[in-house]
Amino acid sequence: MSRRIAIVEDEPDIRANYVDLFRRQGYLVDAYADRLQASATLLDKLPDLVILDIGLGDEIDGGYELCRELRARSPQLPIIFLTARDSEIDTVVGLRIGGDDYVTKSVSLDQLNARVSALLRRAALANTANDREKPIIDGPLVLSMERMLVTWHAQNIELTVTELWIFQALAQNPGHVKSRSQLMQAADIYVDLATISSHIKRIRRKFLAIDPGFNGIEAVYGAGYRWVRQG
Fold first, then answer.
1. Are strands 155-156 and 136-138 parallel, antiparallel or unpaired?
2. What is the pTM of this model?
3. Fold for domain 4-127?
4. The dihedral of CA 119, 121, 124, 126: what is its sign?
5. Fewer beta carbons within 10 Å, N or C terminal of the chain?
6. 93-108 pLDDT per residue, tens
7. What residues contact 117, with CB distance under 8 A and at least 6 apart?
């Protein structure tokens, strides 16, 4: 069955270009020009992946607001920010509020298509995990890729698709340092190494929100990150 992609972009020519790209790849594509139009439809019936611009018409941060709305509806929905805004602050904000990936409009169409394919593939793998796959249990941590579920002290930690795969790479090898490159490969995403750090910070914040004493993810200077064994 064809996957459905939603594109939220206020520039008609750019929107049409992306719609054509993904329809030629065999995707079903819905396109929206503003946040209100997209929100009215997408929150009722979620697509398989969403591509968002940040500035949408008169709303200079409309894409951020729509991302928040979609994240509240589904923690695992793959979301890519595709925007002309290339500052580090914008990138950090986009990832902090729940984007799985953040790319500028200078990206090639081939690379954009590769990013979309990677995120959809990861989401599909998580949703079709082997029923016999054992969850990772380490002290108060339970991680089930089959259910796309992480709990800490029996409370849910809502991770995005990208965060989930990064976190699994750490948690399944407690005590072992994973470099940023290795975590990027584990998540199967096309991002720079600094973006991996932003994802790690966001994962940490989600744990700290329910446990201020959380210290399970340790940064190893010049090497990467590791999960501190809890059991």
1. unpaired
2. 0.72
3. Rossmann fold (3.40.50)
4. negative
5. N
6. 888 888 888 888 888 8
7. none
